[in-house]
Amino acid sequence: MQYLYVRVVKARDLPSKDVTGSCDPYAEVRLGNYKGTTRHFEKKSNPEWNQVFAFSRERIQATMLEVTVKDKDFVKDDFMGWVLFDLTEVPKRVPPDSPLAPQWYRLEDRKSNKLKGELMLAVWWGTQADEAFPEAWHSDAASVGGADALANIRSKVYLSPKLWYLRVNVIEAQDLIPSDRTRFPEVFVKAALGHQVLRTRISMSKSINPMWNEDLMFVAAEPFEEHLVLSVEDRLAPNKDEILGMCAIPLQYVDRRLDHKAINTRWFNLEKHVIIDGEKKKEVKFASRLHMRICLEGGYHVLDESTHYSSDLRPTAKQLWKNSIGVLEVGVLSAQGLSPMKTKDGRATTDAYCVAKYGTKWVRTRTIIDSFTPKWNEQYTWEVFDPCTVITIGVFDNCHLQGGDKGGGGGARDSRIGKVRIRLSTLETDRVYTHSYPLLVLHPSGVKKMAFVTQNALHPSVDSESTR
């Protein structure tokens, strides 16, 4: 896919237009009916913008490119000069060629007379493989307004946080002090990590020295900024528990276990909290204790996906990883026959993007505005460690764009159009596949085929000298 790129770098020696003897300049890049503008600077005759504009060749309706410098004004913006480019004379750039160096161009008036002031520009033909593509303003999204809306249509790459199993082996407690000494306490331990809350059974030894020897398993994410909060509680009656003591353990100080060797146990002091005049205060008296073995398990893989469609089977600890067996390349090309997902200005429309997930890496293509046959033509790569894994590609409708009937709200969720799953074990090494896959979506009535998405996949491969 070819694009006309315009990088507007800066201007110098711009003439003053205001009565104050200064100017508030911005640049306007126009190609036919498409127009993109830079931000404006106040009272600056040497502004630096360094902004990129991309015009899809498929939608170009003119033969001349206009780059105009204007002075922002309350009533009407003043024309300060422009630079014109004939599209037939614009050079082509093919990576891995270095980026095209910008040049200074003298501003002219509408009669081609030289004016005061110069503009530094670079104009070239390129493709979506160009480094400038992700940061560029795109003509096919010209109807999208606002910085937040533009941020919602750019392609992005995300990395999932590394997940660890947190094993809490609750062994016993000592010297508990229940408020009612005339009864046998029914003690259990409640553990909380963020929104995860687990509890042991009530100890069979109904005394002030109860025993459990019970494992509680949590999932913790790096960086370890949370605290594991434990409370020893006495069941006084149904739905009525008394806290006998609490302790909070920062995860950053918890030992990490990578092999079969057990982690040493530790005793933790329990602090009892009392409420005085509505405020919770710590009661510093004789401390009860809790005996536990706590560790972050690095030898297991945290199952954050369905086991039938897992894209990653590696243990958490990087020291235990095997070498990669190659690289998976996926080109998300296009989709056909997408269903209308919403109405905009009284007509049905869809603003589609793709999300692909494999391992810890998520990728999101740019959003193609108002199209039932979007073309993305974007390529991504992943390292592969196990051929018995699955890559998942989902297609969504972007509801966060201005003008949509249901868009704009921070709580709005993008609608799922459908998904594709591809098992890497069905692909051959060193072979390129180009297929159209049916998009599947799960409805209460069952699985339905919604449309077709096309993508290009290259199976992981290994060289004799290096991994490709």
UniProtKB/TrEMBL annotation:
Record GO cellular component, one term: membrane
Protein name, UniProt field: C2 domain-containing protein
Superkingdom, taxonomy of origin: Eukaryota
Xref: SMART domains: C2
Organism: Lactuca saligna (Willowleaf lettuce)
Residues of the C2 domain: 1-105, 144-268, 309-437
Chief subcellular location: membrane
Record localization: Membrane
Coiled coil: none
